[in-house]
Write a structure and sequence with these properties.
The chain contains two helices and three strands, in the order H-E-E-E-H. It is α+β, with helices and mostly antiparallel strands. The longest helix has 21 residues. The radius of gyration is 14 Å and the shape is globular. The protein starts with 8 loop residues before the first helix and ends in a 7-residue tail after the last helix.
């Protein structure tokens, strides 16, 4: 899609492992060269991932500080939505 898109299968597996470990995905200009995105999983009452909550931001408004803020917002929103679907977080 863009020069930043992950096209190597090994690199994709590595990125997916990191996403699973962190519980968040960060997409840096992979689908649109002018936009980056953060996303967090939304779970149902069984704990199964049924959706994702994402926040897309034009690169003109993107920074590492902003990325951290957006990650927190996406994670918080995904937890709240998951809870509305009956999911109960452990811990």
């Amino acid at each position: 899609m863009t020069p930043n898109s992950i096209t190597d299968p090994a690199a994709l597996r590595e990125a997916l492992a990191e996403i699973r470990e962190r519980g968040l995905a960060v997409e840096r200009r992979e689908s649109n060269p002018d936009v980056s995105c953060v996303a967090a999983p939304v779970r149902d009452r069984t704990g199964r991932v049924v959706a994702a909550l994402s926040i897309s931001v034009p690169m003109i408004r993107w920074s590492e500080d902003r990325r951290e803020e957006l990650e927190q917002l996406a994670a918080k929103g995904a937890v709240e939505l998951s809870e509305r679907l009956g999911h109960r977080s452990v811990g």
